[in-house]
Design brief:
By secondary structure, the chain is α+β, with helices and mostly antiparallel strands. The chain has one domain (about 20-190). About 20% of the residues lie in helices and about 25% in strands. It has 3 helices and 11 strands. The protein has helices at about 1-15, 115-120, 170-190, and strands at about 20-25, 30, 30-35, 35, 50-55, 65-75, 85-90, 100-105, 125-130, 130-135, 165. Strands 5, 6, 8, 9 and 10 form a 5-stranded antiparallel sheet that branches. The chain has a two-stranded antiparallel ribbon with strand order 1-7. It starts with a helix and ends with a helix.
């Protein structure tokens, strides 16, 4: 009997080590909205823009965040600046634990830039939310199962995605400034 109890404890511990937490990836959960806009404040609209969740352990920091799920396009019309919500599993964080989260969005230039890193490398407009800690993730390995938390509208403001805007890649801005400076210098010499 003692061996059976020990075997069950070991099995339960090993199963919980492989547990994966879940989160509801949406920036519009009534009545709360965390719009994503362009540099001028216009909400992003349509399949010309993607958003993706990046997640990791709380101890890992922003540099350790990895993409979760696939990029999602933005909605149009009165719900522009948002995307359709989807439940996502975070493979590196067990259920009932907290995760470090960040939302990254980018202009996909006719759907040729399928990742945030590709958009940044190409100089496309891109942006990211502030890093935030989730509420305890959903856990389907416990009875009763716990629900996946939303990334917006949580009672604690520290556990929320905040609105943000896309900006041109800094290298594009730097090149533009250098170009203007070069033109001004050339004009002075003439």
């Amino acid at each position: 009997m003692r061996k059976l109890v020990i075997a069950l404890l070991v099995a339960g511990t090993s199963l919980s080590a492989f547990a994966q937490g879940t989160v509801f990836f949406a920036n519009r959960v009534a009545p709360n909205i965390a719009l994503v806009s362009d540099q001028g404040g216009t909400p992003l609209s349509g399949s010309g823009f993607y958003a993706q969740l990046f997640a990791g352990t709380v101890a890992g920091g922003e540099g350790a965040l990895t993409p979760v799920g696939t990029p999602v396009p933005f909605r149009t019309g009165t719900v522009a600046g948002t995307w359709a919500g989807v439940g996502l599993t975070i493979p590196t964080v067990p259920g009932s634990a907290q995760a470090l989260l960040q939302v990254r969005a980018w202009a996909n230039n006719g759907q040729t830039l399928g990742t945030y890193d590709a958009a940044v490398a190409a100089g496309a407009a891109a942006g990211k939310s502030a890093v935030f800690t989730s509420l305890p993730l959903g856990d389907t390995t416990v009875v009763p199962a716990t629900l996946a938390p939303n990334i917006v509208g949580n009672p604690n403001a520290l556990n929320n995605m905040q609105p943000f805007a896309l900006v041109p890649e800094p290298s594009v801005i730097a090149l533009s400034v250098l170009g203007v400076a070069g033109l001004l210098l050339r004009r002075r010499k003439a």
